[in-house]
User: Which sequence fits this backbone?
């Protein structure tokens, strides 16, 4: 497996992930299909989490919600098993990271409800189609994330800061990306900030959330920030949920939905 | 006359300008009506200038063109006399500024063709309607203009650099203003640049074209740049036209067209 690896279908990719034949970031590997953030919470918290998503829809656009105990989402993907088809998981207990397993089959429970939320990886294809240069992709990287001083709208017990993703863009591309992304509310819509990260509580771009992603700026680039689904992770930690599971960084749920089709229908 | 002066109609304002009862900038005084840049050229150059406008429509959106020798534009305003109803004029001979009269009645000629081009003053009302704070208006000032290193598309003899107007905006307002202005191509559409003026040849914001307008930035503001109708002035100077006339800085043609109506129809 290397950077030239491709899969004929999202299903083939999910099977490769399930069988650990693909363990990398998903942003490069499925450029034409919608990807999503995963959040799995006990049923007792599911309605509150759904309300939190609705109240913060720019960060947390809901693509699908499962029935309690059902780890499948046929509307999003054929033979999609949320317990095995994501490249990595983070398990939180009482708000603390407890483990990062490769599969959650052995800890799945009948009371768990899964949510899949839109992800900015999906609009990157649309940006590129409009001529926006995404240097982090050119460099084989992912976009960096940051915790901001902006606050979400709370839906108890969910609350906490807005997390954003950052892309380093030329000024002309920043304008183009603003216009293109604004039309795609299922993928976070327009940027929430541009150019002056210290105003939203980001003091040092090199210190990204999770420690990964492209964090450098060239002299001819501006940092452009979009609301990010990782906001859900922070909210679950702030809520100190007894138990929840999310995807591991930049290893997303890859669906069968085509980006252009969802974009056109939204 | 002071900053609280208002006029019931654009016609009343034009009569006040004609009679020198109003001599100030027009950006504050007619916030609901479309304003335009004025360019008057000999008929021999009119088609070339129209082609130049069409080739550079973001800077030079054509609102109206007169017949040779006709200084009236009834489609833009009742009793609108372009020889007297603009607060100031600049007369160029062989590409050099020759005089800045208060009226051009005595130099009007039967071969002159007038063009009125969209102006960013018109979208400022729309920006404010969407909650964008325009500090230069709050401070009783106008937006500053700059000559850039970006080049227009030439239509001989017209060519030369793109001129831009700058507004100092908060990052959130810069995003909002980008989205709102992009929908109004008759008023220059989306910004052409944001944030890094040296990339478009602007080394010093304090040195604005014409020497007027708000040129300072606060720490929490970004400079946002739109294509500007003053591009026509520079092009006429570069063309070394034997004779042409434009409006004097920030003294625009005030029309009877309502901004919201033109915006909705475009």
Assistant:
């Amino acid at each position: 497996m290397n950077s030239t690896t491709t899969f004929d279908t999202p299903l083939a990719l999910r099977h490769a992930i399930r069988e650990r034949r693909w363990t990398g970031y998903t942003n490069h590997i499925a450029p034409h299909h919608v990807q999503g953030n995963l959040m799995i919470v006990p049923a007792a918290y599911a309605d509150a989490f759904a309300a939190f998503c609705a109240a913060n829809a720019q960060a947390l656009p809901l693509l699908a919600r499962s029935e309690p105990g059902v780890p499948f989402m046929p509307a999003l993907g054929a033979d999609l098993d949320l317990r095995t088809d994501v490249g990595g998981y983070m398990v939180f207990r009482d708000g603390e990271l407890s483990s990062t397993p490769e599969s959650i089959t052995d800890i799945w429970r009948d009371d768990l409800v899964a949510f899949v939320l839109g992800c900015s990886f999906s609009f990157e294809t649309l940006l590129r189609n409009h001529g926006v240069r995404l240097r982090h992709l050119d460099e084989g990287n992912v976009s960096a994330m940051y915790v901001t001083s902006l606050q979400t709208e709370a839906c108890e017990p969910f609350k906490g800061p807005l997390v954003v993703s950052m892309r380093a863009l030329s000024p002309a591309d920043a304008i183009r990306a603003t216009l293109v992304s604004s039309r795609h509310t299922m993928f976070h819509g327009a940027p929430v900030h541009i150019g002056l990260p210290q105003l939203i509580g980001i003091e040092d771009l090199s210190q990204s959330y999770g420690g990964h992603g492209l964090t450098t700026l060239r002299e001819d680039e501006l940092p452009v920030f979009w609301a990010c689904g990782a906001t859900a992770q922070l909210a679950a930690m702030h809520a100190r949920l007894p138990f929840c599971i999310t995807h591991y960084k930049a290893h997303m749920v890859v669906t069968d939905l085509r980006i252009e089709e969802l974009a056109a229908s939204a």
In short: Chain B has two domains: 10-119+243-265, 121-231.
